[in-house]
Design brief:
Blueprint (H helix, E strand, L loop, with lengths): L2 H19 L6 H7 L4 H7 L3 H20 L5 E3 L11 E4 L11 H13 L1 H7 L8 H21 L6 H24 L6 H5 L5 H18 L1
Antiparallel strand pairs: 1-2
Helix pairs in contact: 1-2, 4-5, 7-8, 7-10
Length: 217
């Protein structure tokens, strides 16, 4: 069995246990027993349970992104502290000089979460510092900050203001997707929000432009 096959076996076993028991509190002992592996094998592939949870998300989102978005538009986290460098996690699709099309990414994120809605609903219940919600916030706030810098181009905005925008919109987006998963929405994201399907990046561009005009006036 290849390394990837073993990781997928452990991951699928964990997911099944979470969904069966309706809880995110599944111990490593239960995982290794169910997949007929030992702790040494588990820790060889995943240093911790939280590492496994993060890997499952990164694997899931990478599959969605790579299946629907051109490779040149995919973003990888280089020198990832968890070692996930080869897994795409975000996109950069420039639709103008200072505009970004975020729709394909958010549609992929929605498909990723809805594909395992019960599992992710359980994972989103863990608000500890090492839980999945905090991992996603820390993963995507810097990514959105890079988008903000692109939208700004050569215009000035205080670093503190840029970080505020990145944190605010990341938090808002994650809260929305958490609610969708918990409430069991099945309607595709694009069909549900219609003309507002690029609201994050359109709103960022509008707010930045409004702020810049205020500085000039």
């Amino acid at each position: 069995m290849s390394t990837l096959d073993t990781k997928l076996l452990i991951a699928e076993t964990f997911i099944n246990l979470v969904e069966t028991n309706n809880t995110d509190k599944v111990p490593i002992s239960a995982i290794v027993a169910a997949c007929e592996k030992n702790r040494k094998t588990f820790y060889y592939h995943f240093p911790s349970r939280n590492h496994l949870i993060a890997w499952i998300f990164r694997w899931d989102i990478a599959q969605q992104l790579e299946a629907h978005i051109e490779k040149d538009c995919l973003i990888y986290k280089r020198h990832d502290p968890l070692g996930f460098d080869s897994l795409a996690y975000y996109t950069c699709i420039k639709s103008g000089v200072r505009t970004i099309d975020g729709r394909p990414f958010f549609q992929a994120l929605d498909a990723c979460l809805c594909h395992r809605a019960h599992y992710y609903a359980c994972m989103f219940a863990d608000n500890s510092p090492d839980g999945l919600p905090n991992y996603l916030f820390n993963l995507y706030s810097p990514a959105l900050l890079d988008d903000i810098k692109f939208i700004l181009s050569n215009r000035y905005l205080k670093e503190a203001n840029q970080r505020f925008l990145a944190d605010f919109y990341t938090g808002a987006a994650l809260a929305y997707f958490t609610r969708r998963v918990r409430e069991g929405h099945t309607t595709p994201l694009a069909a549900e929000i219609g003309a507002f399907d690029n609201i994050i990046h359109d709103s960022l561009a509008e707010e930045i432009t409004r702020q810049q005009r205020g500085r000039v006036l």
